[in-house]
Amino acid sequence: MDGYTAVLVWGDYKRRGNARALEILLAYNTEDVINLEVLMILAYNLLVGQTPFAHLQIDLPTSPEIPFQVDDETLDGVRGHRAW
């Protein structure tokens, strides 16, 4: 899901109080935070690898289980209804 679709899903939640839309956003935001940690570690390892401290590289974390589910029907409906 891209940022634009996230805004549409948020709008659906705000307009209709759609709990499934909120869960989609929670899943999206959780994935975003997890991926930011991975990107930070990759960047750190790339930079530290170019120094005398290359032995201080960090292992990538294991991906945690995400407790939120994406409801495809809700997501498809929001994507099909682009107007606010």
Structure description:
This protein is mainly alpha-helical. The chain has one domain (about 5-80). The protein is about 65% helix and about 0% strand. It has three helices and no strands. The chain has helices spanning about 5-15, 20-50, 70-80. Helix 1 (about 5-15) packs antiparallel against helix 2. The longest helix is centred in the middle third of the chain and has 30 residues, at about 20-50.
Runs in which pLDDT lies below 50 for 5 or more consecutive residues are none
Note the beta-strand portion. under 5%
Average pLDDT metric: 93
Radius of gyration: 18 Å
Q: Distance N terminus to C terminus?
A: 18 Å
The coarse silhouette is: elongated
- Please write the string of helix (H) and strand (E) elements: HHH
Number of helices: 3
Largest sheet: none
The amount of helix comes to 55-70%
Class from secondary-structure proportions: mainly alpha
Number of domains: 1
Number of strands: 0
Please give a quick description of this structure.
The protein is an all-alpha fold.
List the helices and strands and how they pair.
Blueprint: H1 3-16, H2 19-48, H3 72-80
Helix pairs in contact: 1-2
Give the key terms.
84 residues; mainly alpha; 3 helices; 63% helix
